[in-house]
């Protein structure tokens, strides 16, 4: 009843590393966006599990024949949709060891290295983006979880005994309200609905012409809510919003939060990574005054998904919100607070050893190497923006601060009322080719094409090809 034998493990392990090396050397051999139809993968797989053993060769054969065609290749340098994310070879090797060691970092003693390396790499990252030492971190799976944790900590900070008494049926509990911009990520609203705040109590604050939260509207909304007996308790500002990568005015929002005694969370899931580049450190201006902050190295620091870095200046409040200590999890070192037991700082008990891959990445490239790579992406976005601005039939839809460009075709020969449909057709035509994958969003009812550079292998030739394909698709509309 043993595991696979080690000779086979060695053989297939080497084979898979070779497969991955070939794949990463030339990821553009596959169409970036999978071409399968809904249900096509499932239809090729048995509905019941195999009752007897199958050879690993047969499994790999099916991987190639069935699974691979259903993969959308985020590793492709032509993947520029959403926030194109990328792993990297040191990150993959770190993941391999994490899987092999299979430690559960719930307690310090269940792997001291997992806990202590997490503390160290999060402190490295804190320094890399220029936050003060008062920010302590926890690695989460995603920014959605990190922001939910922030809302839970903010709710705990109100001292309303929600932890003990819950929220339902309590006549003593005021209506709690939270605030974010109309451009912020849906995960903020989701945190509100998961934690019993309710969607109706999540205020979406209006943004300005550059898609940034208007601080005066935030102040007014808080005041209106207070007057009607609500308790405003949480504001989320975003550095790098999902559609346009706009940057909310964090210093002005921090002033309001300080005056109102409201928890300020900053969502820098994508944009926060840019602060690693010295000339981009301004994007986190004011964040030192926030109560919590999230950034995702899995979005733009070459870390295989998942790795979200959550920071707070109130780690004790976070612990108060989440810590439960059953007898079977008590340890001598935990009892005297000599160590951090990460199970105390979030929902999860079991925790993957995510710090290892990030440690590999930072050491392999060095901070300077990471800066160079991000700088190259920022420059590519500026270059692409320049091409769009110089083309009479195209327009840029929002300021370009990071590696994301939103733009649309607006040829004078086609009536403006048809531009939305036109841009949708252009996007579909470009994506169907399989060389690049772009996405879209809507800004003030305008359909815009969204190009985001985040892949470690994306070079000038890839954005040039995307631009060529976009222009050709517009040409073919004649
Ligand atoms: C600004 C912002 N915040 C949060 C998220 C959610 O990230 P995750 O997938 O890590 O939950 C995204 C996703 O793109 C995002 O753009």
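Sequence proposed for the structure above (478 residues):
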């Amino acid at each position: 009843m043993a595991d696979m034998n080690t000779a086979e493990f060695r053989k297939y392990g080497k084979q898979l590393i070779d497969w991955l090396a070939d794949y990463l050397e030339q990821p553009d051999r596959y169409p970036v966006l999978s071409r399968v139809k809904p249900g096509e993968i499932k239809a090729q797989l048995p509905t019941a599990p195999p009752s007897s053993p199958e050879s690993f060769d047969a499994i790999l054969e099916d991987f190639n024949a069935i699974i691979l065609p259903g993969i959308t290749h985020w590793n492709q340098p032509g993947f520029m949709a959403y926030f194109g994310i990328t792993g990297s070879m040191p990150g993959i090797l770190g993941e391999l060891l994490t899987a092999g060691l299979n430690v559960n970092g719930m307690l310090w003693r269940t792997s001291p290295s997992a806990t202590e390396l997490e503390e160290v790499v999060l402190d490295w990252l804190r320094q890399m983006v220029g936050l003060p030492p008062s920010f302590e971190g926890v690695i989460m799976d995603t920014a959605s979880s990190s922001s939910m944790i922030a809302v839970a900590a903010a709710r705990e900070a109100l001292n309303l005994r929600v932890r003990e008494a819950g929220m339902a049926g309590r006549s003593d509990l005021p209506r709690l309200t939270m605030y974010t911009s109309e451009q912020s990520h849906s995960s903020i609203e989701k945190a509100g609905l998961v934690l019993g705040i309710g969607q109706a109590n999540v205020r979406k604050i209006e943004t300005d012409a550059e898609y940034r939260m208007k601080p005066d509207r935030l102040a007014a909304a808080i005041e209106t809510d207070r007057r009607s007996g609500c308790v405003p308790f949480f504001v989320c500002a975003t550095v790098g919003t999902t559609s346009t990568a706009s940057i909310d005015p964090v210093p002005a929002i921090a002033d309001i939060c300080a005056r109102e005694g409201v928890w300020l969370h900053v969502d820098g899931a994508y944009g926060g990574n840019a602060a690693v580049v010295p000339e981009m450190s301004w994007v986190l201006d004011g964040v030192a005054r926030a109560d919590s902050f999230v950034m995702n190295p899995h979005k733009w620091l070459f870390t295989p998904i998942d790795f979200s870095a959550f920071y707070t200046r109130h780690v004790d409040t976070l612990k108060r919100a989440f810590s439960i200590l059953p007898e079977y999890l008590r340890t001598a070192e935990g009892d005297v607070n000599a160590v951090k037991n990460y199970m105390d700082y979030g929902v999860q008990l079991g925790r993957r050893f995510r710090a290892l891959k990030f440690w590999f990445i930072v050491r392999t490239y060095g901070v300077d190497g990471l800066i160079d790579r991000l700088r190259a992406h920022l420059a590519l976005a500026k270059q692409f923006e320049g091409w769009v601005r110089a083309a009479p039939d195209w327009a840029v839809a929002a300021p370009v601060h990071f590696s994301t460009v939103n733009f649309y075709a607006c040829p004078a020969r086609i009536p403006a009322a048809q531009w939305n449909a036109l841009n949708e057709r252009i996007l579909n035509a470009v994506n169907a080719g399989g060389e690049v994958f772009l996405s879209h969003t809507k800004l003030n009812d305008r359909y815009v094409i969204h190009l985001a550079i985040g892949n470690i292998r994306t070079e000038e030739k890839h954005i040039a090809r995307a631009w060529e394909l976009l222009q050709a698709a517009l040409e073919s509309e004649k």
